[in-house]
């Protein structure tokens, strides 16, 4: 088994159909497969062996796709980093994974050269680095079929977040990604005539598995944008080519502010939202204005995306749907005991889509599995009588803002590096546009009463922009348990707790 065979199969069945469209030019399945073959041959020339870790840190592009499938063809492991990571964040993750080579952009060259000098990586595929990917792509033609791998061998490593302590690199096997690619394609009734708009990053599970791998699996075309740009999105929708639209709640909220919405979206047959739940009233308004539902599902990086799907034939607003084929979901209490229909508990999952573990982190891996092998999602939910799943809340502290994951501790660590901060707690507060907004509650050191004016710029220099709090709330004290643990749940219930009086 090798997920690169999905590309080879689509190139066999649909050689002349477009696989990718970027900046007005199309690349056929035949050509994309040839490009991946050239990358594979170049990697072989550099001595890459099955199981070697190879990094990718660049925005979405045809070259990214060719490199990804080239890595997989030789049996190596694709380690996918966000191109938005700041230098310290990026260096930490690279040092944790230690890939042999990294494909990247000139913006990351200085950091990569330092990592190479330190012996963390062996080579850099980047303009100005050891090789330029363009040279590899224009080398003499040669054929290379994907090497067979055991279904449980790791195909890709995606990060759940975190830049302090041990990061969590999710190891997804060839079987994990194959199962989810099939389930997404089946649930969305995907065909080779579909054109899926993708502006979500390929390093994220939604972009890489749900959109990219599933589209390649079904022989459709990926219409690429490097990032969300409303004007560009509207231009592409106006062509009438786009049949599938994938986005996060903030994008749908922005689109609802436009006039002639149904006319603008006339060619799209399928809408899907991920990352965080859409408010039911937003889904209702969308359907009233467009005549089409926004489908939602449930999945995690650890589940290679698809766990449940709001069914094509019976869409229920507020639900994330039924379990996909071959995957089981059980609601359990905090002692691991199954609960009945309608009762709330932790969403636990078992199936061939569940990760093999966290890279180099056996403690974290053990913590998310019950002894009987069921994966603990950390999310709270319940089933209705028809086995449709509903998400209630997260048990974890993870904040999802605009579709991006923010782990509070990494923000808190940077805040604690400021001498003005005595204590702090970072949480997500409900936000109509972003789903959640990052908020920092801060206890200042004696004699201080206001947040330092340069605090936001200080954080922006050290963290990705979406991790920087949108508001800073100065409080006299933070609510705590008898053991001294900060009770973030009380801040979420009433953000005014302990707020400084004027």
What is the count of helical runs? 16
Query: Average pLDDT across residues?
Result: 91
As a whole number of angstroms, the C-alpha radius of gyration is 23 Å
**In this structure, how is the largest beta sheet organized?**
9 strands, mixed
Beta-strand share of residues? 25-35%
What is the assigned CATH homologous superfamily of the largest domain?
A: ANL, N-terminal domain
- How helical, in percent, are the residues? 25-40%
The name of the CATH architecture of the largest domain is 3-Layer(aba) Sandwich
Sequence stretches where pLDDT stays below 50 over 5 or more residues: none
Strand adjacency order, main sheet: 2-1-10-9-11-12-13-14-15
The CATH class of the largest domain: Alpha Beta
Number of domains: 3
Structure, explained:
- The N and C termini lie far apart (64 Å).
- The mean pLDDT is 91.
- The protein is an alpha/beta fold and 502 residues long.
- The strands form five sheets. Strands 2-1-10-9-11-12-13-14-15 form a nine-stranded mixed β-sheet. It has a seven-stranded mixed β-sheet with strand order 6-5-3-4-7-8-18, sandwiched between helices. Strands 16-17-19-20 form a four-stranded antiparallel β-sheet, with no helix packed on it.
- The chain contains 16 helices and 25 strands.
- It has three domains: 4-173, Rossmann fold (3-Layer(aba) Sandwich), CATH 3.40.50.980; 212-360 and 367-394, ANL, N-terminal domain (Rossmann fold, 3-Layer(aba) Sandwich), CATH 3.40.50; 399-493, ANL, C-terminal domain (GMP Synthetase, Chain A, domain 3, 2-Layer Sandwich).
- Helix 2 packs across helix 3 (62-73) and helix 7 (174-187) packs across helix 8.
């Amino acid at each position: 088994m090798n997920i690169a065979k999905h590309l080879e199969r689509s190139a066999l069945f649909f050689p002349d159909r477009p696989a990718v469209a970027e900046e007005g030019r199309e690349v056929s399945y035949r050509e994309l497969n040839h490009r991946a073959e050239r990358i594979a041959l170049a990697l072989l020339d550099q001595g890459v062996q099955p199981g070697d870790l190879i990094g990718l840190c660049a925005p979405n592009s045809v070259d990214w796709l060719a490199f990804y499938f080239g890595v997989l063809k030789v049996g190596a492991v694709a380690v996918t980093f966000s191109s938005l990571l700041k230098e310290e964040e990026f260096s930490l993750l690279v040092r944790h994974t230690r890939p042999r080579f990294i494909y990247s952009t000139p913006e990351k060259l200085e950091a990569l050269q330092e990592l190479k000098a330190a012996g963390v990586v062996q080579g850099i595929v980047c303009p100005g680095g050891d090789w330029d990917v363009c040279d590899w792509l224009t080398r003499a033609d040669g054929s290379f079929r994907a090497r067979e791998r055991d279904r449980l061998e790791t195909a890709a490593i995606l990060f759940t977040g975190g830049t302090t302590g041990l990061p969590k690199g999710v190891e997804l096997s060839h079987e994990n990604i194959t199962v989810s690619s099939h389930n997404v394609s089946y649930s969305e009734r995907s065909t080779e005539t579909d054109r899926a708009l993708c502006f979500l990053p390929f390093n994220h599970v939604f972009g890489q598995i749900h959109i990219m791998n599933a589209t390649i699996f079904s022989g459709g075309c990926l219409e690429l944008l490097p990032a969300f740009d409303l004007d560009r999105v509207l231009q592409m929708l106006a062509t009438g080519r786009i049949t599938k639209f994938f986005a996060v709640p903030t994008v749908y909220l922005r689109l609802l502010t436009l006039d002639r919405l149904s006319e603008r979206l006339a060619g799209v047959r399928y809408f899907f939202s991920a990352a965080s739940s859409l408010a039911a009233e937003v889904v209702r308004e969308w359907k009233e204005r467009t005549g089409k539902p926004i489908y939602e599902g449930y999945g995690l990086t650890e589940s290679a995306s698809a766990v449940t799907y709001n069914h094509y034939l019976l869409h229920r607003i507020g639900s994330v749907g039924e379990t996909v084929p071959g995957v089981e979901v059980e609601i359990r209490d905090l002692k691991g005991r199954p609960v009945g229909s309608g009762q709330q508990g932790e969403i636990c999952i078992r199936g061939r889509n569940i990760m093999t573990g966290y890279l180099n982190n056996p403690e974290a891996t053990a913590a998310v599995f019950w002894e009987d092998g069921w994966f603990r999602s950390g999310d709270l939910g319940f089933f209705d009588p028809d086995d449709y799943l509903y998400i209630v809340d997260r048990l974890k502290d993870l904040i999802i803002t605009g579709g991006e994951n923010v782990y509070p501790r990494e923000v808190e660590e940077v805040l604690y590096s400021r001498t003005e901060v005595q204590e702090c707690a970072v949480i997500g507060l409900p936000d109509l546009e972003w789903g959640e907004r990052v908020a920092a509650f801060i206890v200042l050191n004696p004699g201080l009463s206001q947040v330092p004016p340069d605090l936001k710029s200080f954080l922006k220099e050290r963290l990705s922009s979406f991790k920087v709090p949108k508001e800073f709330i100065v409080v006299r004290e933070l609510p705590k348990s008898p053991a001294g643990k900060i009770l973030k749940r009380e801040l979420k219930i009433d953000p005014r707790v302990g707020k400084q009086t004027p």
